[in-house]
């Protein structure tokens, strides 16, 4: 018996699911959570985080784009944009996006915009990775990394990959995206595909 406004210890117990042989390959087979006690265990109540037990596969897809307010030849800053969409009827419980930024640029800022729903996204400019905590079913998130230009070579190639998903993905063919900008090697405003003198050597 405990008096009003008295205190009782709260004990938290956590497990690595891998200790029980649970992997992304077999997690979908889990149907229930069973808590069995023994000895003199005195339980006032048992609670568990249902989100930690949701292993239903989700299909995430990603696209990539390169944006600049000016021609890339004269650009002082560039936006590298990755958009991740949850194509499933199940919420995603978290994933990361690996940014493959080209040489000759340095990090300036980043932003994440959810189409709706809840979640958080943070960018690590050292590892060039986004950590996204959640993406609701049918929703998307637009991840933008703004960089300053020091010295770049055209065409630019930008790639973004979905990695470290909390759930398995039944279709990994859309987990990576790569974009190459249209090339204007001599920066004369005429794309190489139409430029009869793309190196400006007069020939």
Task: Explain this structure.
The protein is 0% helix and 32% strand. It has 203 residues and is an all-beta fold. The N and C termini lie far apart (95 Å). It is built from no helices and nine strands. The mean pLDDT is 81. The chain is elongated, with a radius of gyration of 24 Å. The protein has strands spanning 60-67, 77-86, 95-100, 105-114, 121-124, 129-132, 140-149, 157-163, 176-180. Strand 5 and strand 6 form a beta hairpin.
Summarize the structure.
With 203 residues, the chain is an all-beta fold. 0% of the residues lie in helices and 32% in strands.
Characteristic key phrases:
single chain, 203 residues, mainly beta, five-stranded antiparallel β-sheet, 9 strands, 0% helix
Gross morphology is elongated
**Average predicted confidence as pLDDT:** 81
Assembly category: single chain
Largest sheet: 5 strands, antiparallel
Kindly state the percentage of residues in helix: under 10%
Low-confidence stretches: none
Q: Report the order of strands and helices.
A: EEEEEEEEE
> How many β-strand stretches?
9
- The end-to-end distance, rounded to whole angstroms, is 95 Å
Q: What is the strand arrangement across the widest sheet? A: 5-6-3-8-9
Q: Roughly how many Å is the radius of gyration? A: 24 Å
Structural class: mainly beta
β-sheet strand percentage: 25-35%
Count helical runs: 0
């Amino acid at each position: 018996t405990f008096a009003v406004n008295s205190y009782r210890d709260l004990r938290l117990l956590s497990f690595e699911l891998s200790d029980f042989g649970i992997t992304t390959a077999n997690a979908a087979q889990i149907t229930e959570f069973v808590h069995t006690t023994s000895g003199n265990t005195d339980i006032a109540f048992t609670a568990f985080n249902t989100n930690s037990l949701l292993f239903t596969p989700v299909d995430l897809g990603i696209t990539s784009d390169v944006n600049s307010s000016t021609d890339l030849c004269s650009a002082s800053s560039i936006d590298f944009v990755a958009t991740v969409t949850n194509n499933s009827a199940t919420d995603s419980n978290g994933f990361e996006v690996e940014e493959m930024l080209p040489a000759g640029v340095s990090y300036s800022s980043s932003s994440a915009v959810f189409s709706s729903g809840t979640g958080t996204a943070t960018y690590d400019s050292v590892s060039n990775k986004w950590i996204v905590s959640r993406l609701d079913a049918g929703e998307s998130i637009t991840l933008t990394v703004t960089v300053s230009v020091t010295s770049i070579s055209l065409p630019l190639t930008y790639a973004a990959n979905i990695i470290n998903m909390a759930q398995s993905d039944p279709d990994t063919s859309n987990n990576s995206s790569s974009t190459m900008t249209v090339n204007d090697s001599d920066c004369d405003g005429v794309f190489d595909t139409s430029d009869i003198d793309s190196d400006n050597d007069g020939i």
